[in-house]
UniProtKB/TrEMBL annotation:
Membrane spanning stretches: 12-31, 88-110, 116-132, 137-154, 160-180, 209-230
Entry keyword annotation includes Secreted: no
Domain of life: Bacteria
Protein name: Peptidase M50B-like protein
Length: 233
């Protein structure tokens, strides 16, 4: 039934449907528009900081807490060795996490597992709630998780499929915009403590190369995830 939600429109460009293109276009507008981006960017920050937190734990570091701020920035604090692979991977993980979550979401949508995707999202948000250390962060995650839960519990299968498709596209596009924003800030000298700059000091690899690597990962996820969502809806 979820598959039917994607194929109720006339075919366009072979197996690509008008509805699938419309969902992709809607997500692109949400990411491109300044007003909607300011409102929804916190969702990207949640994924970004969650990436830092998960890799910190996997690398053996102790997670002390996560903070989300009203300017859509975030901070994940962990303790362990101040250098070494664990710290490098922890710093590196934030930006790719957004795109990789979008790619995973695209795969779940196209394999007809939208309900599973929604419940995984709720579970991850609940776990993140336990690590949050400020009121704004707690409220942001509760609101986001409440919306996802409402879709999983009350929405029809068709609406669930469309919502998950939109969320996947939003993360795929939303994983790229912060990288371009960081590049612009660095050119103006406004991001000297960014993840890229910390990695440059820690790993002796120039910050622009980290940005290029993140961008390559983001574009790769967009290419594969977009193909799945458009050609295999």
């Amino acid at each position: 039934m979820n598959r039917l939600a994607w194929q109720v429109s006339l075919p366009l460009l072979g197996s690509v449907s008008v509805l699938a293109l419309a969902v992709a276009a809607a997500a692109l507008v949400l990411v491109s528009s300044g007003r909607s981006w300011r409102l929804l960017r916190t969702v990207v920050t949640i994924a970004h900081e969650g990436g830092h937190a998960v890799v910190a734990l996997l690398s053996g570091r102790k997670l002390n807490g996560i903070r989300l701020h009203s300017d859509t920035s975030g901070l994940t604090v962990s303790t362990g060795r101040a250098s070494g692979p664990g710290m490098v991977f922890t710093l590196f993980a934030g930006y790719p996490a957004v795109s990789l979550l979008g790619l995973a979401g695209a795969w779940l949508v196209t394999t007809d597992r939208v309900r599973l995707m929604l419940w995984i999202a709720v579970g991850l948000l609940v776990l993140m709630l336990l690590a949050l250390r400020n009121v704004y962060g707690i409220v942001s995650v509760i609101v986001t998780g409440g919306l996802v839960f409402a879709i999983s519990w009350f929405a029809t299968p068709a609406v669930q499929a469309l919502s998950c498709g939109l969320m996947s596209w939003f993360l795929l596009f939303g994983g790229i915009r912060p990288i371009t924003e960081l590049s612009s800030k660095r050119r103006r000298g406004r991001a000297q403590d960014s993840d890229a700059d910390q990695l440059a000091r820690l790993a002796r690899v120039p910050a622009p190369l980290w940005l290029l690597l993140w961008l390559a990962i983001g574009l790769g996820c967009l290419l594969f995830g977009g193909h799945w969502l458009l050609v295999r809806p």
